[in-house]
From TrEMBL:
Belongs to the aldehyde dehydrogenase family. Keywords: Oxidoreductase. GO terms for molecular function: oxidoreductase activity, acting on the aldehyde or oxo group of donors, NAD or NADP as acceptor. InterPro entries: Ald_DH/histidinol_DH, Ald_DH_C, Ald_DH_CS_GLU, Ald_DH_N, Aldehyde_DH_dom. The keyword Oxidoreductase applies. The keyword Glycosyltransferase does not apply. The active site is at 261. It comes from the Bacteria. It comes from Streptomyces cellostaticus. This is Aldehyde dehydrogenase. Residues 23-485 form the Aldehyde dehydrogenase domain. Pfam families: Aldedh.
Length: 499
């Protein structure tokens, strides 16, 4: 597949918003241009929400929660809708694969699996309807004859998603929120709104009741109105730590619930028994995913000083051979960054690394021959001081920093010496050593010999990498409120229950 002669974006009604189960006309003529990351040309244009549009979306979600059937359905009934939405997304898999590379730069070969991945996520949450204890009996300890823990929907949810992997974020926010019985206002990123339209179309095709899912695209100022609105009970956000701090402070003012999946500066600790060539191939391959625009990227590589030079050489050798190019070309191993400002950001950090005295082992510029598109070379720095800017700040691009350590204890100290705690990895041939070091790393996920994250289990961070978890049972809990009920007798259905 080539860049020339592609069809228009495979979505409809981009001049409208999905609110209250209908495609509604915006309050203004404001629009957002979505630019193809590989060609720098206009791909499509969407309506830009204003204050009135956001308020209308919140009102629809509020009415659907307060007066509609959705929160009063059983979890099993809601699960049926989730499966139907998932099936629609699988059918739209090729449309997702067409949109995602243009918006964010991901390779088509990876994006081609996004539809089946979205269906799998919705099916996993639907399956929880049969296993999760939405009600469970407990023995009272302070009077009463029969106690119950009841987990009820948190209410109206404002879901704010980033531009790097929209459909994955949508699936792991909308899926559990809907299963819990919440209604949702989904706010898409201006750089990547296409998947928001796709989920709206899927929800409509699945017959989701009006107002249960509402979809708008807005800039930061209007997005903040969603966070501030007292009709919204909970915010779920994925994005930068800086934006997360702002959202948390606003939610704190009105004691709104929030789940925050924020930035990372994750460390890979290379133990002395690990083959460095194998480690280098694993790290470089992972960093090519989405051109390093992944919050869980292992970008701080910590290795003993005696093996530092050998690892830098191995990483530089692998990275220098990465084929950067058209994300629709099956020969490409890495595509462009998502936006011009994102490439400016990455290039700025590379310049800081050089200025701070780190050793530029490979990359650092723009690939030759790619005069259009926001491409950057895969880059490796060696002899990086862990106190330096490139070791402490999230770059969100294909830039690796190799940091020398005195020994294993020092490596763990360096790995933990960051405001972040989203992901980490331990490279060793000894699974017991991997488990031991994993227990010392302050991180929401620790992988063995690779970048690993698993939204089927749980994903989220320590420290300033976020609050709460997404994925699996842990990802359902933030959309529920716990109610204690104490009765003077046994309710129907619990006559034979032993407390």
């Amino acid at each position: 597949m080539s860049l020339a002669g592609r069809a228009e974006a495979p979505i409809g009604r981009t001049d409208r918003f999905f609110i209250g189960g209908q495609w509604v006309v915006p309050s203004s003529g404001a629009t957002i241009d979505v630019i193809d990351s590989a060609t720098e040309e206009l791909y499509f244009r969407v309506a830009q929400a204003q204050a009135a549009d956001m308020s209308r979306a919140v009102a629809a979600a509020r009415e659907a929660f307060d007066d509609g059937p959705w929160p009063r359905l059983t979890p099993a009934e809601r699960a049926g809708y989730l499966r139907a939405i998932g099936a629609e997304l699988r059918l739209r898999g090729e449309d997702i694969a067409e949109i995602w590379p243009r918006e964010s730069g991901v390779l088509y070969t990876f994006a081609a699996h996004a539809g089946t991945g979205a269906e799998a996520a919705f099916k996993r949450y639907a399956a929880l309807a049969g296993t999760f204890p939405f009600e469970e009996p407990v023995k009272p300890t302070a009077g009463g004859q029969f106690g119950m823990i009841v987990r009820e929907p948190a209410g109206v949810v404002g879901a704010i998603i980033p531009w790097n992997a929209p459909m994955g974020m949508i699936s792991n926010k909308v899926g559990p929120a809907l299963l819990a019985g919440c209604t949702v206002v989904l706010k898409s990123a201006p750089e990547a709104p296409g998947e928001g339209y796709l989920i709206a179309e899927a929800a409509a095709a699945a017959g989701l009741p009006p107002g249960v899912l509402n979809v708008v695209t807005a800039d930061r100022e209007v997005s903040e109105l969603l966070v501030r609105d007292p009709r919204v009970d909970k915010i779920t956000f994925t994005g930068s730590t800086a934006a997360g701090r702002r959202i948390a402070s606003i939610c704190g003012e009105r004691v709104a619930r929030c789940t925050l999946e924020l930035g990372g500066k994750s460390a890979a600790v290379i133990l002395d028994d690990m083959d460095l060539g194998t480690a280098a191939r694993s790290l470089a391959q992972a960093e090519c995913l989405l051109t390093g625009q992944v919050c869980a990227s292992l970008t701080r590589i910590v290795v003993s000083r005696s093996r530092h030079d050998e690892l830098v050489e191995a990483l530089a050798g692998v990275f220098s051979r990465v084929r950067v190019g058209d994300p629709f070309d099956p020969r490409s191993q890495m595509g462009p960054l998502a936006a011009s400002r994102q490439r400016d950001r990455v290039e700025g950090y590379i310049a800081k690394g050089v200025a701070e005295g780190a050793m530029l082992a490979t990359g650092g510029g723009r690939p030759k021959g790619l005069t259009r598109g926001w491409y950057v070379e895969p880059t490796v720095f060696g002899n990086v001081d862990n106190r330096s800017v490139i070791a402490q700040e999230e770059i969100f691009g294909p830039v690796l920093s190799v940091i020398p350590a005195a020994d294993e204890q020092d490596a763990v100290r360096i790995a933990n010496d960051t405001i972040y705690g989203l992901n980490a990895a331990v490279f060793t041939n000894d699974v017991n050593r991997a488990r031991e070091v994993a227990g010392q790393l302050r991180s929401g996920t620790v992988g063995h010999n690779a970048l690993r994250s698993d939204l089927g289990i749980a994903f989220g961070g320590f420290k300033q990498s976020g609050i709460g978890r997404e994925g699996g049972r842990e990802g359902l809990l933030p959309y529920l409120e716990t109610k204690t009920v104490i009765l003077e007798g046994r309710p129907a259905g619990y006559e034979d229950t032993v407390l």
